[in-house]
Amino acid sequence: MTLSVQDLRVYYRTLRGDVKALDGVSFDVADGEILGLAGESGCGKTTLGKALIRMDGRMKLVGGQVELDGENLPIGDTVKMNPFRFTEVSIIPQYSMSAMNPTRKIGRMVRELLDSRGVTVDTDELHRRLDLVELSRDVLTKYPLELSGGMKQRMVMVISTLLNPSLLIADEITSALDVSTQKAVVTTLKGFRELGFVKSMIFITHDISLTNQLADTIMVMYAGKLAEKAPADTIVNRARHPYTQLLISSLPEVGVRYAEKKLTGIPGNPPSLLNPPVGCRFQDRCPLAFDKCREEPPAVEVEKDHFVACWKA
Amino acid sequence: MRQYFGRKLLIYALTFFVAVTVNWMIPRFMPGDPVASMVARARISDPEAVAAMQQYYSNLFGFDQPILAQYFNFWGALFAGNFGISIWAYPLPVADVIMDAVPYSLGLLIPSILLSWFVGNWAGALAARRKILDNTVLPVGYVLTAMPYMWIAILLCWGFGVVFQVLPVAGGYSFAMQPNLSWEFVGSLFQHWLLPFVSLFLVALGGWAIGMRNMIIYELEADYSNYLAALGAPHRLIRRYAFRNAVLPQITGLALQLGVLVAGALVTEIVFSYPGLGSLILKAIQNQDFFLLQGTFLFIVLGVLIANFVIDVVYVIVDPRTRAGMTGATT
Amino acid sequence: MTTTDPITAITAPDPGTPPVTVRREALYFAVRNGKLLLGAGIVAIFLLIGIIGPFLVDRPPMEYVGQPMMPPDGEYWLGTTTFGQDVLAQFVHGVRNAFVVGLLAGGLAALIGMVIGFVAGYRGGLVDEILNMLTNVVLVIPTLAVLLIINAYLGIRSVGMQALFIGLTSWPWVARAIRAQTFSLRSRDFVDLARLSGVRTGKIILREIAPNMSSYLFMTFILLFGSSILIASSLDFIGLGPTDGVSLGVMLNHANQWSALHLGMWWWFVPPGAAITAIVGALYVANVGLDEVFNPKLREL
């Protein structure tokens, strides 16, 4: 068991009160597993990704436990968490285009970063990995501005995985890319796992179809809670949660003429997380909602590795 | 890089052209007969001087010539270094009068600009680091930048010169001395220089400190800072990067602030009767000495343009991106 | 973006929060922002002094009304000048004129900066190139030096005239900032939509682009307001102030010229400078507060 998250609660402090961005989420990620994390913007998926490596100033840990390789991760304590960052948990941020210091040559930045962590640069290994992602070794003597978007993305992928972390968080890294580049990124990430650069991975995206190409398991979140978690093809073909079903059915399908089949959305908006409703958070938009939904549905394992938080499942 | 400098130089050339044109146009576009009113307003009693003045103005303005010819003559005189004759310091040429004053102005401006820039940036970076410092640097900074230059000069002059009587309040050196190369004279120069320098320094300081604090906080929130922090880099490294990136806009800011700083120096000099360009301007205005005023104007514009160019060069040296062949600065 | 984005496809697209809510939200944070309240409070006090002061102190500011060189007392709250002018009367008129200059010059500069910035940023191409060049030239020329020349040749100077010329010379940085913002806004969907539906350029700028920058425009105006007061006071101090009235800068000029420092007449030169510092400083601080109100990222820290 690489990662184990128990009842994680992370709130955002605002002047109007706490926004309950993550409100009791539990799941596991196994060795070598790639977990795809999907959901609408604001469902808490990015918060989850950030919480596992570095919370920003407005986030606070309210409850829950996180274990990585059997060791407790002190995610609420930014100082104690520091030794784990980069070496155990690493991230490819969604802002790869601007993740590198614009006024340092990339090679020097990498060296200074590694020095600051007390690690000496293994130049051969670095070169090998650059070759792997088809980056010329010259990039190390260039400034980020001199690289194309795709090159920056690959460079950041190399930097983030340089110390072979146990867990890699890839946060919406494909949303700004075109389809062919997305494919390439997905292939590269798979390769990183095969080569043992990373043990397991959480791939955060709002694009379920892309998640399906990469992830072993998909976890769908809604309004700060887990809605459904199951192996990828189970989610795509046999989803049990009405939200997941609507999400899947709204995907455009290859070969379907949209004049005949109208693309349907889910009417309504997610609830405010400042004062979330009691019970199931999807009840107001759910076509199947009934009285019982005023009570909160627990995440139940309906079959092996298939968790659903819905009374109708 | 060639393009970067080419563009800059084009702007400066254009600016100089506009400044000279404005200088030429203003006397011609103001209502009334400029020569008559200038000579009349000039408080000269010496009839010989008045006649010379009249002659000189008429020749220089050359109203009998077509307007375009007047304009070209003006440029011609300019390139010959002929700015006219000063009325206030008659019969000295304006260029000489100005050249006597320039060293004093530069002696005030250069140290106060540089020192306030360095100290201000340092204070601002420090403020961005600690809440307690932030709570003092910020209010002090705002009060300082909001102060009119001449008022802080007046307060210093009054406090140190009149109330405590520890420093002289007027002139560039003691009235009892003739300029010479002795320690005594240098000491006197320094004593007279100190208060105007401090007052310029203080006002400018506030602006730099606030600017640096805001820039560095912005940089600490930038993506690259977050990425480094997520990878567990120590604060030291992140702050070093942030500082370096925050300094770059401060250099550009220096170029933008030059006009304000020069204006500040002018009024500060007036308070302390410091014998630089500011005092010349005051004399020129009081004596309706328009040639002196216009000559000083051109000198100031020229000085600011040169300083701008120097800052451009410095920027290219400091910002690696411009050296790497890209246009990092977008001025 | 070439990605298919099922999420934005399924949540019925929200056409932006209605403006009323935005305004109410801004107000909510505005009344809770200490910097804004402090700054606005100080400005309001001086505004009040400037508006009703001249009616309460009915002594003419430039007339020789009392004993010369009197320190503050019950009759002349701020004492008298070397000539027996009432400093308080000069002060209240000076504060009034500071606001007049700030309002007119700041307003004019904001207007010119906006028009040039919008047009340059929206049109792009050659128009942008020319306007950008103009902006850069005016930016490099030392403003005060130009104002000196202009004002020196003006025989009669009024507060309005002074404001006009200050406004005409202090717009460039505004134009530049607004140009950059317009540049980023003009490729947004709602602007494209307006353009495709054949709305005229002027209308697009006025209806679609300007409202999106309204808070920024307002803050720009405040900064210009403050800097105009400072520039005007420098001009006045050099002796190029209004010939038809009194201002805080003119008071400082007279105090300096008639040796108030050496005579120790602090009541003559301390109040006008303190008033300028307080007004301008309060404007700056209020501006920081406004920034926090309008910028959600800043206010939650």
From TrEMBL, chain A:
PROSITE patterns assigned to the protein according to its UniProt record, in alphabetical order: ABC_TRANSPORTER_1, ABC_TRANSPORTER_2
A molecular function (GO) term: ATP binding
Entry-linked SMART domains: AAA (SM00382)
Protein's UniProt keywords contain Nucleotide-binding: yes
Transport among keywords: yes
InterPro entries, alphabetized: AAA+_ATPase, ABC_transporter-like_ATP-bd, ABC_transporter-like_CS, Oligopep_ABC_C, P-loop_NTPase
Keyword terms of this UniProt record: ATP-binding, Nucleotide-binding, Transport
One record GO biological process: peptide transport
Domain ABC transporter: 3-248
Pfam families to which the protein is assigned, alphabetical: ABC_tran, oligo_HPY
Protein name: Dipeptide/oligopeptide/nickel ABC transporter ATP-binding protein
Automatic annotation (TrEMBL), chain B:
InterPro entries: MetI-like, MetI-like_sf
GO cellular component: plasma membrane
Source taxonomy: Bacteria, Bacillati, Actinomycetota, Actinomycetes, Streptosporangiales
Similarity comment text for this entry: Belongs to the binding-protein-dependent transport system permease family.
CDD domains, per database record: TM_PBP2 (cd06261)
Subcellular location: Cell membrane; Membrane
UniProt-listed PROSITE patterns: ABC_TM1
Record carries keyword Transport: yes
Main location: membrane
Span of domain ABC transmembrane type-1: 102-311
Protein name: Peptide ABC transporter permease
Transmembrane segments: 9-26, 108-128, 149-170, 190-210, 246-272, 292-318
Membrane topology per record: Multi-pass membrane protein
Pfam families assigned: BPD_transp_1
A GO BP annotation: transmembrane transport
Record keywords: Membrane, Transmembrane, Transmembrane helix, Transport
Entry superkingdom: Bacteria
Automatic annotation (TrEMBL), chain C:
Sorted UniProt keywords: Cell membrane, Membrane, Transmembrane, Transmembrane helix, Transport
Mode of membrane association: Multi-pass membrane protein
Residue ranges annotated for the ABC transmembrane type-1 domain, each copy included: 95-289
Domain of life: Bacteria
Cross-referenced CDD domains: TM_PBP2
One GO molecular-function entry: dipeptide transmembrane transporter activity
One GO CC term, this protein: plasma membrane
Regions crossing the membrane: 36-57, 98-122, 134-154, 160-178, 216-238, 266-290
InterPro entries: BP-dependent_transpt_permease, MetI-like, MetI-like_sf
Xref: Gene3D superfamilies: MetI-like
Principal localisation: membrane
Subcellular location: Cell membrane
Family: Belongs to the binding-protein-dependent transport system permease family.
PANTHER family found in the cross-reference section: D,D-DIPEPTIDE TRANSPORT SYSTEM PERMEASE PROTEIN DDPC-RELATED (PTHR43386:SF1), OLIGOPEPTIDE TRANSPORT SYSTEM PERMEASE PROTEIN APPC (PTHR43386)
Protein name: Peptide ABC transporter permease
Organism the protein comes from: Acrocarpospora macrocephala
Lineage: Bacteria, Bacillati, Actinomycetota, Actinomycetes, Streptosporangiales
